[in-house]
UniProtKB/TrEMBL annotation:
Protein name: Response regulator transcription factor
Listed InterPro entries: CheY-like_superfamily, NreC/VraR/RcsB-like_REC, Sig_transdc_resp-reg_C-effctor, Sig_transdc_resp-reg_receiver, Tscrpt_reg_LuxR_C, WalR-like
Domain annotation Response regulatory: ranges: 3-119
A Pfam family that the UniProt record links to this protein: GerE
CDD domains assigned to the protein according to its UniProt record, in alphabetical order: LuxR_C_like, REC_NarL-like
PANTHER family: TRANSCRIPTIONAL REGULATORY PROTEIN NARL-RELATED, TWO-COMPONENT RESPONSE REGULATOR
Residues the record lists as 4-aspartylphosphate modifications: D54
HTH luxR-type domain location: 151-216
UniProt KW Endoplasmic reticulum keyword: no
Keyword Transit peptide included in the entry's annotation: no
């Protein structure tokens, strides 16, 4: 059974999500928080598997709440659920340690699948959506595409093939697409992805995408 804490300042939104969870086998809502500080407190008390986190809430916002929940070192993972026009905030939420990002207009089955994915340590954001999200923000804050990327210490441990895989992840390719373009089997790609995540210290694929941007391997124009 996967336990879920709902953090959203809109009562109707919380009620709708709670009803969905209560009607879904394998998921149990364990609490509702109306703002970030309450989410942090309840996450510490209830130790849910997943927190569904809104971003814009009164007082402490969802980004800071996410950062504190992740920093606590517990097993609770955070899934951001917000509107796409808040792309900058969503990006910062992922940097704060969220395990995924979904839009509030996601279909019920997408939200359920996202919760299960985050609970098991997977990334939720689809590669195409990941790229749209990062493209919308990083072109304003990262170096131009023609600038020489600084050699980040995290990249020095990667083999040439692993670096290629990290670039592909950053460009939003799925494992199947990486396998096809690099002429590898999907099982081999999965092994490479696992090694890349371990070497760069990324919790999941989303953090690997962010690393690819931060280190200059991928830019918003690439």
């Amino acid at each position: 059974m996967t336990t879920v804490l709902i953090a959203d300042d809109q009562p109707l939104q919380r009620m709708g999500v709670r009803m969905l969870l209560e009607g879904t086998a394998g998921l149990t809502p364990v609490g509702e928080a109306a703002h970030g500080a309450e989410a942090v407190r309840m996450a510490a008390e209830l130790r849910p598997d997943v927190v569904l986190m809104d971003i814009r809430m009164p007082g402490m916002d969802g980004i800071e709440a996410t950062r504190r929940i992740v920093a606590s070192g517990g097993r609770t993972r955070v899934l951001i659920v917000t509107t796409f026009d808040l792309d900058e905030y969503a990006y910062e939420g992922l940097r704060a340690g969220a395990g995924g990002f979904l839009l509030k207009d996601a279909r019920p089955e997408e939200l359920v699948a996202g919760i299960h994915a985050v609970a098991t340590g997977d990334a939720v954001v689809a590669p195409r959506l990941t790229r749209r999200l990062l493209d919308a923000y990083t072109h304003r804050v990262l170096a131009p595409a023609d600038a020489a990327p600084a050699e980040d210490p995290r990249l020095r441990t990667l083999t040439d093939r692993e670096r290629e895989v990290l670039v592909a992840i950053g460009q939003g390719w799925t494992n199947a697409e990486i396998a096809q373009r690099l002429v590898l089997t999907e099982s081999t790609v999965k092994k490479h992805v696992g090694r890349v995540l371990a070497k760069i210290g990324a919790r999941d694929r989303i953090q690997a995408v962010i690393t690819a941007y931060d280190t200059g391997l991928v830019s918003a124009k690439s």
